[in-house]
Amino acid sequence: MGRQLFGIAKVTRSSEHKILDALFGVVQCVPIDIEIAKRTDEYLQQFRKSHSVELGDAFIAATAVLHNLVLWTRNLKHYPMNDIVFY
After folding, report:
1. Is the dihedral of CA 30, 73, 81, 44 positive or negative?
2. Is 53 found in the same domain as 21?
3. Where are the alpha helices (DSSP H) in the chain?
4. Looking at the 3D structure of the chain, how many domains does it have?
5. What is the average pLDDT across 62-75?
6. Does residue 43 share a domain with residue 10?
7. Which residues make beta-bridge pairs with 4?
8. Can you give the pTM of this predicted structure?
């Protein structure tokens, strides 16, 4: 990899590109459609004030739910929706 900085391997640009290429090789991009937009709005209406849900998290949640995807996150508090499946 790269040099060590404070005990953490510093990633070089070329190795960073290899990692990102590998990641994007297995990640599927899902376009935002009207159904995702509507569900996002529902989540924002329901959870923005009570749980401080922001637009990006609402879009991620809506996309995961409508496409039956498992959501991988450590920030469970950002996703109070009860219809999400977590890894």
Report:
1. negative
2. no
3. 13-26, 34-51, 55-66
4. 2
5. 95
6. no
7. 9
8. 0.72
Are the C-beta atoms of residues 83 and 65 closer than 8 Å to each other? yes
Give me the amino acid identity at 4: Q
Q: How far apart are CA 76 and CA 85, in angstroms?
A: 11
Cβ neighbors of 56 (< 8 A, separation 6 or more) are none
Q: Answer whether 70's CB lies under 8 Å from 86's CB.
A: yes
- Cα–Cα distance between 87 and 55 in angstroms, integer? 22
Residues 73 and 56 in one domain: yes
User: 33 — phi, psi (to 5°)?
Assistant: -115, -175
pLDDT over threshold 80, residue 31 = yes
pLDDT at 15: 81
* Domain span holding position 21: 1-27
